[in-house]
Design brief:
alpha+beta, three-stranded antiparallel sheet, 233 residues
């Protein structure tokens, strides 16, 4: 996502408005984070895979929007072509600002330089320095997304502990050209089936089975991306 984020201040930003996004800020972003809560909807259009932060060792679930860096097949001429828009994209140009020294507290921020921010048109954020219903609704969406993201991090940590996330290479045929996509992690179906009854029941209790099967089924969407790339040439 582009542009530096600053704390939203009613005194400083009382005249700011948000206009409908043209999605140009992510036109070259080939993966975006999604929470496990989104997989059921996102998996109907995008391959859902996992990536690992080499510094922290944490896993993150992501939606593939393209087959290579710099390629977003869901954006054309600033318009979103798909049906489902991941929450991290819907949040823009707003976002949360975290202070590692202050636990359990978040602040709302805004990317002031975004083309989605205006002083002349769009949905107002404040009226006489009071939050508008539009901003209040957006804040609730941001907080809900943050809570889902935190829950996702914990669940993916559990899956990693169970040895279910394994590094794999996806091979896709793009108009006769075999292309390997590396750096991805997938759920190992064989290991999943070999879990003890107790471990499998724990997955069910945590509500992970739906996202797991959604992820596995979504891998077929890689072929959809390949077709979109060919048609877009």
């Amino acid at each position: 996502m582009s542009n530096q984020i600053t704390l939203l201040d009613p005194a400083k930003h009382s005249d700011l408005k948000i206009v409908p996004s043209d999605y140009t800020h992510i036109a070259e972003q080939h993966i975006v984070p999604v929470t496990l809560h989104e997989i059921g909807r996102a998996a109907t259009e995008y391959p859902i895979v996992f990536v690992k932060n080499s510094d922290t060792g944490e896993f993150q679930s992501v939606a593939m929007l393209g087959l290579k860096p710099g390629q977003n097949l869901s954006v054309k001429d600033g318009k979103w072509l798909g049906l489902y828009i991941p929450a991290v994209i819907r949040d823009y140009p707003l976002g949360l600002v975290l202070n590692p020294d202050v636990k359990d507290k978040v602040w709302i921020g805004i990317r002031e330089q975004s083309k989605d921010v205006s002083t002349t048109e769009g949905q107002a954020l404040f009226e006489a320095e009071k939050e508008t219903p539009f901003l209040e609704a957006r804040k609730q969406e941001l907080i809900s997304h943050y809570e889902q993201d935190q829950a996702t991090r914990g669940i993916l940590g559990f899956l990693a502990e169970q040895g279910l996330l394994v590094s794999q290479t996806l091979t896709v045929d793009v108009a006769g050209e075999k292309r390997n996509i590396n750096g991805l992690y997938l759920i190992d179906e064989q290991k999943l089936n070999q879990l003890s009854d107790e471990a499998f029941l724990e997955l069910k209790k945590r509500g992970i089975l739906g996202p797991i099967f959604g992820h596995l089924g979504s891998l077929n969407q890689v072929n959809r991306l390949a077709r979109m790339e060919v048609l877009g040439r």
